[in-house]
Structures are given as structure tokens and as C-alpha cells.
């Protein structure tokens, strides 16, 4: 019998601490839980609706994009081939189409040279956070609860985050001012503030127009950049749509993160960042400034070289086929999300409103769009309770405290309705109602033996 | 006339120092130079040969991969669609096909679960370097001259590099031992050593079998991991092909970086890392270890979430269509590279051997494969000389000192012949000969007025 040589062994304590980050480890556990209860109705997946996907579309998008290169750009065959197959421009090659989309959908004119096409919005966050944190004094502010991908990007980029309160109307501007002042008193440099102005993930909060303007004024006064992440505004009902922060930005204070994950498709991993801020190389205004986008591109050349050409071509074709309008491209999906939001709010009303003793302890917000509703429960909504909910009642949700880095949200759950049917939503909320009844029963009998906490 | 509001201004000194890294800034300048002299014959591009690319192949690869999911894996339509369009498995979905390719081409059996599919080999380097550097004591050894992408990955990941000498036979093992000892005396922890064992970029060096075995023994004795990067061995002539380090690795000391950039195509941005090292979470062998691959996947979930599904599907289809053999898939390219290598060496011989006073001062190495030859010149081969060479003689090459982080190689140039025809190679080397004659003339007339340095 051959003796198997002993492998080398590494210790977790010898690896960078970000591999063991509690928030991300929790998300991994949540995914595993969803895998263990495949029959449960899942309000935890933040994935886009997939009912309209068709694999045949991909080849058509490639053909459309090829036609664009040949006919509209007028590239000779050899350069078309090079565009598809070779290492390419670090900032990407669909920047003109993205600029056109922003013009069509948002009335926003941006210099295509200020756009860096990235491997999903996630890479854009990493590049930006890596660039903005020069030394241990630099700190990034973020409206909290926070998108878990932004927390992860900050961990891997080594960027310290500082929480700013968020309420139904988005980031709390008074708290932002307080946090900036507090950071400065501690000798820190607040560099930028991260916000999701429309239907934030996970809170569903949306900022009013006056607050958007006030945020930009505050940022200008305090010389802090604004990082705008806005993947959901495209799903807003037409009339109620507010201008993006970047569309209100007169002083190039806003760095805008864009995503095609919720519009075209998530697997493509194509996003972008608009970084039109001039960067001077010696602080003197005489030196010709380059754009922050070009510095981010240098970092990108060290992380992924360039965004996959095939993925860019597919997204490029998708944009062209839809007249460079994401609003037009996602009309069917937007209808599904509006229908599902209504079904979620209706079900919450019909299950919880008539429940005896309610509304004490159970409440929820009512966003006007997006993919998420937050419910507050009369008992701790933690990982143990989630497992109990999945195993005993067949319903999954996401504990909110993960999005607060474990400092708040202990009684809250995020309900994501994007991939469900209205029937599943109704059934899922009914199951959630049974969990609440079950827990109320336990609270009436103190010391119940199998309480999950 | 509307007054344009003054934009916010950032200063380069407020951004992370990696955006201003000298090696990468130089590479950007070199690319610009190539753009300014489009008619020059360029020995500087390290791009793969592009003569066999056909845009129609992409859709066929997608169809092939779809057939594999449906027929071989047996996925129902809904899951096929999800694989193409949704967020996916962080470690990727072509890991089984990659494992099959390694079995077919290298006789290497790897657990597919130890493979992380990455956004090109570049992302794999970043993830790995980020994971291995826990604190300021950790240091990575690297055979030098060094692939500029590895230098870049180290900069962005914050991993300090320490150079180890390399000669015609690859990494100098005595120097490696010396550097490990020196690092330990300084209180540092050498974690891993980076090598390209076959036809290294930029040196063209190849390690003999005995040296490969000795490297693994040294690494085991010193408890240092080996990072193997091997994109060129597939282009080795059949009989002379040596086993990869990973194929000789009995103790799981080797972390193998894989790339499809030089075989399938660079734009796809699909690579991978094999990281089958067990990681214990408390140092005790009783705790069930997880693979290093799973920790790298956690970092990947913070950098790009997953590798583009479309890009993976295209590479998957390419592998399937070629019986999972890269040797078979790249037979035509390998023939081109062998032909071009021969043309380069022949031209160097015919231009420089008969030159009066030669071989004094001009010499070159003679790799048996790969994409690069290194020439040593009797004058400084720096960026100024390169511009002079391009403007006056119409020939571009890459100054080698960039790959030594500016510590050596001042008289050397890398000649990359991968994208040229034999006719262009002959003409280019003749032009290089004229540059040498020109510089010899200047040395004979001291104080010549327009000397480029």
C-alpha cells in the first residue's frame, strides 16, 4: 500500500484577516442554509428575476456588437477580431455606449473617458476604496445598514468604514456631519461617503430630492467625495423617478458606481465607475490634471487587466438592441418587481394586521420600488432563528444585523421578493406569520424547552 | 454665458501609492510609445498570435458549453439558464473541465474543489498575495527579472517582494536559500516563492528537472510555499517538455496559477489557481481543515464575486471542442511560435555575428520555446534609447530594467516575437542592427551632439 505523503498544513492565523471576516462568513453560512432547505420559500436571495433569460440572446448580442464595431465604428476586420480576443483597453471598450445610456435614461452627459468598465460593480468598489485610502488616517463613511458587498470590498481593500445613520429617507445628514467632525477630532481624514440613494439594499430607503441636494452641499462644504451606488433606480415607476446624485453634481464631487447585474444579467460581471475628478500631481493647478478614472485604470491593470471582452461585447449588444435605454430594456422586469412588491405588502397586511395583539412588535416599511422590504419582529431575528424558521416553517429571510456589522438590527429581517411569484410570496408570508405565532406562544409560556435562543 | 462651476480637485499625494508605481507607470509609457510609432516593428508586445482567431467561434463555444450542461451534466433548462445568467458559484463552474485538461495534458490529478476559476491569472495572483500576507512581517520571494503583472499584483495587494537571482537555468537555488535566511534574520517570514519554470517572462529561462525537484525539497525544508506560474509550457516542443512543479508536488507545497490567455484567448480573462493546501483554523490537527482554495474564494467574493459566466462558458466550450487538451488546441499557435523563435535567432546570428568588432557587447540567450529572447547591448537600453530607436530606426523593444525594479538589466532588451511574421522579424532585427551601428559610431566620436543620453 502506497504511503500518502503528509501535506503541508497552513494555519488560518497565518492568512490575511479578511478571509475570516465575520460578515462574509455569515453570508456563506446563509447560502449553505438555503442549500440545506431547497424546498423552503426564500426571501433571502437578492438575485434578479430570471424568467425572461434566454441563452440564445447571448449569441445575438455578440453579433449585434460585432455589427456595431464594423458598421458604426468602422473598424477593419483585423481590429474587430482584436477587440474580441486580445488584451484590451484597460478602461474597457463599451464606454461610449454606457455614456449614451446615461444620456438617454438619465439626461446625464459624461465624458466617456471618465468611465472605467469593471468586472462588475464589485471590482469598481475595490479599485475606488484602494485608491482613496492612502494611509491609516483615511476613513470612508457609509450609510448603515450597508450593502454587504461594499463591506467586503472595504475589508479586502483595507479601507476602514465608519457608520452613518440611515432612516426611511436615506442617510441622516445631521449624523453625517457629526461623524465627519468626530473623525476629524480623532485625527482622521474622512475621504468619501457611500450612499445608495434609491431603494437601498437592504433598507429599501430612498432619498428625497431636497436631501440629495443637501447631501451634495454638505459634501462640498466638508470637502468629502460622495460615492453613489444606484443599481435599482431603473425599476422606479416612471413619474416618481428622482435624478441620480451624479445628475445633480455640479462640482464633480460624485463618483458614480454603475451595474448591469440587475438590468442585463448578473453573471456577465460588467459594471463601471464614473470618476471625472481631476487629480493634480503636485497640488499645483498648473500641472495638467488627469482624471481619477485613469488612476483607477492603473489599479485595474493590476487586478484584472481588463474586463472580459466577451462579457463587454454581450452587454454592448444588449444596450444597442435596446436603443441604449435600460428603462426600455427592463420594462418587463420592472413590472415583475412592482407586482411582487405589491404582493409582499398586501400579504404582510393581510397576515399581520388582523393578528390578535398586533401591530405590537411586528412592523414593516413600505418602499415604493426596489427589491427589498424590511420587517421588524417581536423576537431576535438571528441565524439560529433563521434555521428554526427554515426547518420548522419552510421560510428563509436574511437577518438584518449582518448589514449593521452586528451593532443593530437584531429584530429585523430583510425580505427580498425579486425571484418569487406572487403565489410564493403569499405562502411565504403566511409561513412567516406562523413563525410569529409560534414565538408569541413561547413568550406566553416562559421557559419553553426548545426555544431557539 | 453660463459659468462652469469649479470642479473639486484631488491630489495624487492623497491617493494610494500603488496608483503611482514606477514599474507600472513605465509600462503605460511604453504602450503610449507604441501608439505614437504605429509603423515601427514592435518586439515589445507580449500578446499572443492572433492569426487564427475567428469571431464566429465564440457563439459556437457557447453552444458547445450549453450542450455539455444539458447532455453531460444533465441540468434542466432552468438551471442551464441560471448558470449562464445569474450570480454563480464563487469558485466557478468550469473547474471539472480544467481538472480534466490537467489530467489529459499533464497527467496531473487534482481535486476540482481545489480550483478557483479567476478573472484571468492576474486576479488569482492578487487573491493569493492578499491571503498570504497577514502582517508586516510576511514577505514573498520572487525570481527576478520578474513578470510585471506579478509586481503589480504585489503592489495592489500590499505584499512586499524580495528578489531572488535567476540565470539561464531559472531561479538560483543557492540565492533562494540565502534570501530566506536573510529575511529570517531580519525578523521577516518568507511565505512563498514565485517562479515561472518554463520559458519565463521576460528572461526565457527554463528550469531543469533536477532543479525543479531540488526547489521542492528546499521549499519543504524551509516550509515555504512555491507559487508556480506556467502559461508557456504548452508551447514546448513535445519531447523536451518537463513536468510542471505541481505534477512533482507530493506535499501540496505548490500553488499553481493557470491561464487561458496564451492558449484560448487573452480577452476572455479566465484563469485559475489550484490551492489544495489544507488550512486548519486553530493550529490543531483535530479541526477539520478547509482548502486554501476556499479561503481564496472568500476573497474573490469581495473582489469580483465570480468570474464572468459568459467568459467561463466560452472557455468551457473551447476545452470541450478540443477534447480538454490545450496541446491539441494550440498546435497551430505552437508551430507559429517555434517558427518565429527560429527566425529571431537566425536573424540575430546573421545581423550581429558578421558585424565588425562583434560579438563584443552584443549577446543573446537561446530559449528552446516561449515568446521571448533577451538581447544584451553595448549601450544603455533605457526608455530614452527606446524612443530614439522607434523614431530613428522604426523598431520597438522592451527595456529589461523595468523587470528588475530598476536594479539591474540596464543594457538588456526583451524581444517578443509572438505577433510578428518571419519577414517582420528579419526586418526588425536588421533595424536593431542599424541602431547598434549608430551607437557604436557615437562611441567612436566622443561628444557626438545628439546622443540620446
UniProtKB/TrEMBL annotation, chains A, B:
UniProt cofactor(s): pyridoxal 5'-phosphate
Residue ranges constituting the Aminotransferase class I/classII large domain according to the UniProt record: 81-432
InterPro entries registered for this protein in UniProt: Aminotransferase_I/II_large (IPR004839), Class-I_PLP-dep_aminotransf (IPR050859), PyrdxlP-dep_Trfase (IPR015424), PyrdxlP-dep_Trfase_major (IPR015421), PyrdxlP-dep_Trfase_small (IPR015422)
Database matches in SUPFAM superfamilies: PLP-dependent transferases
Domain of life: Bacteria
A Pfam family annotated for this UniProt entry: Aminotran_1_2
Name this polypeptide is given: PLP-dependent aminotransferase family protein
Keywords, sorted A to Z: Aminotransferase, Pyridoxal phosphate, Transferase
GO MF entry, a single one: transaminase activity
Organism: Streptomyces phaeoluteigriseus
Amino acid at each position: 500500500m502506497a504511503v500518502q505523503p503528509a501535506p503541508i498544513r497552513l494555519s488560518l492565523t497565518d492568512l490575511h484577516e479578511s478571509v475570516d471576516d465575520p460578515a462574509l462568513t455569515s453570508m456563506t453560512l446563509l447560502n449553505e442554509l438555503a442549500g440545506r432547505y431547497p424546498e423552503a420559500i426564500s426571501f433571502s436571495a437578492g438575485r434578479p428575476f430570471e424568467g425572461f433569460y434566454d441563452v440564445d440572446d447571448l449569441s445575438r448580442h455578440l453579433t449585434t456588437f460585432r455589427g456595431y464595431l464594423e458598421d458604426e465604428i468602422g473598424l477593419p476586420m483585423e481590429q474587430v477580431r482584436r477587440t474580441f480576443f486580445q488584451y484590451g483597453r484597460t478602461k474597457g471598450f463599451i464606454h461610449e455606449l454606457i455614456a449614451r445610456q446615461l444620456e438617454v435614461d438619465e439626461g446625464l452627459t459624461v465624458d466617456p473617458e471618465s468611465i472605467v468598465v469593471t468586472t462588475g460593480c464589485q471590482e469598481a468598489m475595490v479599485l475606488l476604496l484602494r485608491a482613496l485610502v492612502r494611509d491609516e488616517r483615511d476613513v470612508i463613511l457609509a450609510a448603515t445598514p450597508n450593502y454587504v458587498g461594499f463591506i467586503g470590498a472595504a475589508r479586502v481593500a483595507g479601507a476602514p468604514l465608519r457608520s452613518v445613520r440611515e432612516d426611511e429617507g436615506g442617510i441622516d445628514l445631521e449624523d453625517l456631519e457629526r461623524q465627519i467632525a468626530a473623525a476629524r477630532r480623532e485625527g482622521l481624514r474622512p475621504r468619501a461617503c457611500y450612499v445608495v440613494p434609491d431603494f437601498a439594499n437592504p433598507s429599501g430607503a430612498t432619498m428625497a430630492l431636497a436631501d440629495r441636494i443637501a447631501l451634495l452641499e454638505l459634501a462640498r462644504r466638508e470637502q468629502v467625495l460622495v460615492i453613489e451606488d444606484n443599481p435599482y433606480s431603473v425599476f422606479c415607476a416612471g413619474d416618481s423617478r428622482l435624478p441620480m446624485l451624479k445628475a445633480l453634481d455640479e462640482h464633480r464631487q460624485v463618483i458614480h458606481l454603475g451595474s448591469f447585474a440587475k438590468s442585463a444579467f448578473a453573471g456577465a460581471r460588467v459594471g463601471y465607475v464614473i470618476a471625472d475628478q481631476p487629480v493634480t500631481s503636485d497640488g499645483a493647478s498648473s500641472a495638467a490634471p488627469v482624471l481619477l478614472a485613469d488612476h483607477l485604470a492603473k489599479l485595474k491593470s493590476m487586478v484584472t487587466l481588463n474586463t472580459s471582452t466577451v462579457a463587454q461585447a454581450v452587454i454592448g449588444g444588449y444596450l444597442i438592441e435596446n436603443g441604449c435605454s435600460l428603462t426600455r430594456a427592463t420594462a418587463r422586469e420592472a413590472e415583475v418587481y412592482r407586482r411582487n412588491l405589491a404582493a409582499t405588502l398586501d400579504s404582510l397586511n393581510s397576515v399581520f394586521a388582523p393578528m390578535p395583539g398586533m401591530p405590537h412588535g411586528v412592523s414593516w416599511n413600505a418602499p415604493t420600488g426596489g427589491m427589498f422590504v424590511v420587517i421588524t419582529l417581536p423576537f431576535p431575528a438571528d441565524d439560529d432563528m433563521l434555521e428554526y424558521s427554515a426547518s420548522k416553517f419552510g421560510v428563509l429571510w436574511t437577518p438584518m444585523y449582518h448589514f449593521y456589522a452586528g451593532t443593530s438590527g437584531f429584530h429585523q429581517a430583510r425580505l427580498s421578493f425579486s425571484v418569487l411569484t406572487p403565489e410564493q410570496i403569499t405562502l411565504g408570508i403566511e409561513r412567516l406569520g406562523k413563525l410569529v405565532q409560534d414565538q408569541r406562544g413561547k413568550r406566553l409560556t416562559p421557559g419553553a424547552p426548545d426555544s431557539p435562543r
